[in-house]
Design goal:
One of its GO terms (molecular function) is phosphotransferase activity, for other substituted phosphate groups. One of its GO terms (cellular component) is plasma membrane. With 391 residues, this protein is mainly alpha-helical. It has one domain. It is built from 14 helices and four strands. A two-stranded antiparallel sheet has the order 1-2. The protein has a two-stranded antiparallel ribbon with strand order 3-4. A hairpin with a 5-residue loop joins strand 3 and strand 4. The longest helix has 29 residues.
């Protein structure tokens, strides 16, 4: 172990093993899907032009399960597993449940309400088994601690989990986007979790969020080489919903883990609620989800009816190429997520400077097509040959 109770090497090993297994399993899954003709046909709102295999979530969960079993055997990480804490068991079975829902949806296209019921069932499995909100720290005035009873915690956790599942699923509309956003958000929460582990000297309760994040970052990193534009396989709803559930698990697990008695009133770490940090890490997909619901409802449509109005669609119409669109969104998520985390791990003035520089850089990258060519009537820049109108 390295650091004050922080098993960096072991977490790094888990991350690398998750990435390696996912990378290898994705090739196997893709080959099987192609041989059996299980490929995603082109829909009006899609930005890809060739039928492509889906159900990549199966490979991602394979990497998750393999690295999970490894972590369970590593002496430095066993404190994060049962019987000391039920959270890793909860996230495993919750992930298995959401994978089952996603695979059925990828292969047979479930109705919106049926899929929503399946999402709540998976979220309920996870919350009942042990990952549920218990404490909120409200860092305003003299500070307030909100303590939830078991039922309140499970209900709120299930709603929060379904929100994140759909947020990631909604934003998964362009090659490499969901995998990259999951990797960035997972890394931000991992950094936060490591700071909690360090500050609390390796307390048992601080292990699960760090392990979950290492697994999440690993499976996203392993899948991304297959999925970055031009994608050879899609993660499908099975993969996108798995990322959403793991982000929720890490967020819920990280919340309430700070021991406020360890910090003075003037210490910024004590004033930054964990839930604020993790919400910042997934702010983009959540905002995209909320805007999609508002947009569709205002048109008199079902909030579950797919369209081509997501953030990535708008960036494509602005004139960005597919790869540049993904990189711009990576930059925005990184700026917000790491900016929020920086306030917990570095001095305030440096955190402010870092966050401002990151946000300005993301803004300038967003405006690049406006300086390169005239925007045509389809919304595509005339100077971007690889851009194509969407929807």
């Amino acid at each position: 172990m390295s650091g004050a109770g922080v098993p960096l090497r072991e977490l790094g090993l888990v991350l690398l093993v998750a990435a390696a297994i996912t990378y290898l399993a994705t090739g196997v899954v893709r080959s099987a899907l192609v041989r059996t003709g299980r490929v995603a046909e082109i829909r009006q709102r899609d930005v890809h032009t060739q039928p492509t295999p889906s159900v990549g979530g199966l490979a991602m969960f394979t990497g998750f399960a393999g690295a999970y079993l490894l972590a369970q055997q590593l002496p430095a990480l066993t404190r994060g597993f049962a019987p000391l804490t039920p959270e890793m068991t909860a996230v495993f079975f919750g992930g298995l449940a959401i994978l089952a829902v996603g695979i059925v949806d990828d292969l047979y296209e479930l109705g919106a309400l049926t899929k929503l019921f399946g999402q709540f069932a998976a979220a309920a499995v996870m919350s009942v088994l042990g990952i549920a909100f218990t404490v909120f720290y409200v860092p305003f005035g003299e500070g307030t601690t909100l303590i939830l009873d078991q039922i309140q915690g499970m209900v709120l956790s299930a709603i929060f989990t379904v929100l994140l599942i759909n947020a990631v699923n909604f934003v998964d509309g362009i090659d490499g986007l969901a995998a990259g956003l999951g990797m960035i958000a997972g890394t931000a929460i991992l950094i936060y979790s490591l700071s909690v582990l360090h500050d609390q000297g390796g307390a048992v309760s601080a292990y699960p969020p760090a392990i979950i994040c290492a697994l999440l970052v690993g499976i996203c990193a392993g899948f991304l080489p297959h999925n970055f534009e031009p994608a050879r396989i899609f993660m499908g709803d099975s993969g996108a919903m798995l990322i959403g559930l793991l982000l929720s698990a890490a967020s819920i697990s990280a919340s309430g883990k700070i021991n406020m008695s360890l910090y003075g009133a003037a210490d910024l770490v004590a004033l930054v609620s964990p839930i604020i940090v993790v919400l910042a890490a997934i702010a983009l997909p959540v905002l995209d989800l909320v805007w999609a619901v508002v947009r569709r409802t205002a048109r008199g449509q079902s909030p579950f009816q797919a369209d081509a109005g997501h953030i990535h669609h708008r960036l494509l119409r602005l004139g960005h190429t597919h790869r540049r669109t993904v990189l711009v969104l990576y930059m925005w998520v990184s700026a917000v997520a790491f900016g929020a985390v920086s306030f917990s791990v570095i001095p305030f003035r440096f955190a402010v400077g870092f966050t401002l520089v990151a946000l300005v850089t993301a803004f300038l990258l967003t405006l690049v097509p406006l300086a390169k060519g005239k925007i045509g009537p389809t919304g595509a820049s005339s100077s971007s040959k690889s851009s194509r109108p969407v929807g």
